[in-house]
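INTERNAL AUDIT FORM
Audit reference: QA-55
Scope: verify that the stored structure record matches its stored sequence.
Auditor: D.O.
Record contents follow.
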Amino acid sequence: MDLGKFKTESTAKAKENKKYLQSLKKKDARKLDNAFHTLHEEVFEAIDCLTCANCCKTTSPIFKDRDIDRLAAHLKMKPGDFIEQYLHLDGENDYVLNVAPCPFLMDDNICSVYEHRPRACREYPHTDRKKMAGILSLTYKNTLVCPAVLEIVERMKKGF
């Protein structure tokens, strides 16, 4: 995965993609979900996240209390100690990682806490969720992080 090329391409298409995704809010919600879900399956048949891991290298998931409890237990830490070592509150009062890349990302792009990872990581990049119309602004942001999301949106523009 050439992340430099991806960054150039996603930035160049950002304005167009933002406008396009905003226009999808007017579409039939069921058809929109079906289109995203079909393309999600197709794109992830061809893209291996382990060749990229840009999400883990550049952004932080939001950590909910149950994510913190689960990870702390796995790491044999108290939740408060986990927060102190790894997290801080962002401007929206959500717990996020102190650093990027993610401290649990290993050199081979494998997550060292994969079975215990936060829900936000489990669901990323959210292109197979129901009610896609409600998260199109998040989808736009993810076109700038995830090559698969950019590919899904590019295919949407050709056929939806």
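Auditor finding: record pair retrieved intact. The chain has a mean pLDDT of 96.
Action required: none
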